[in-house]
Amino acid sequence: MGHNRTQRVFGIIGRSGAGKTHLISRLIPFFSQQGLCVSTIKHTHHGVDMDKPGKDTFLHRQHGAVEVMLATPQRWILQHEAASPPVLNDLIKAMRPVDLILIEGFHAEVPATMEVWRSITGKEAIFTKMERIQSVATDALEYCHDISQKPVFHIDDLTGIAHHIQTHAFLWTDQNGLA
Fold first, then answer.
1. Which residues pair with 117 in a beta bridge?
2. Cα–Cα–Cα angle for 16, 18, 23, rounded to 5 degrees
3. C-beta separation of 163 from 114 below 8 A
4. SS (H, E, C) 22-83
5. Is the dihedral of CA 102, 104, 106, 107 positive or negative?
6. Mean of the pLDDT values across residues 148-160?
7. Strand 38-42 relative to strand 6-13: parallel, antiparallel, unpaired?
8. pLDDT per residue as tens digits for the range 19-76
9. Alpha carbon 45 to chain centroid, angstroms
10. Model pLDDT, residue 1
């Protein structure tokens, strides 16, 4: 009988330019100061390649390696060639267990999410139309309170946001995934 791993996960979503990465970058040290070990997964629709043409690892991939690991004294990077877009459950399984994984993006897959919404983006909020968005971090508290019953936090209220994330993080298991 295999070990059933559990993992606390929480999603941070929002339109481009809303401040998702900025919020996560502030939450990581906040959680770390509380003694929590945090990892992140960032989803992007843009093609990104950490390799450079002509480098050894690039040549390994170019010649058919399915995975290429680059190891330095400070860190290691595992690149995996995917025949289809990655499935979030598989990405979580590939990571070392930690106290919390913050996931930027994958808005349709993460059951517990907070939208970062700022009026400056000029883009419509997503939380009014998507039920699985549990809460909002914003610079427009009154507006968001007026259009939704979901918990709303000022984008600079790290304590409140962190408490909400810890209280509402989804308990992922490798058996049940994010269903």
1. 138
2. 120
3. no
4. HHHHHHHHHHHHCCCCEEEEECCCCCCCCCCCCCHHHHHHHCCCCEEEEECCCCEEEEECCC
5. positive
6. 95
7. unpaired
8. 999 999 999 999 999 999 999 999 875 555 566 777 777 788 778 788 888 888 998 8
9. 14
10. 45
Residue type for position 10:
F
Q: What band does 15 get if pLDDT is binned at 50, 70 and 90?
A: very high
Helix axis angle, 20-33 to 158-168, nearest 10°: 80
CA triple 61-92-115, angle to 5 deg: 110
CA distances (Å), 106 to each of 1, 4, 47, 124, 164, in order?
31, 23, 16, 18, 19
Number of CB atoms found within 10 A of residue 12's CB: 26
**Continuous segment of H or E residues that includes residue 91:** helix 88-94
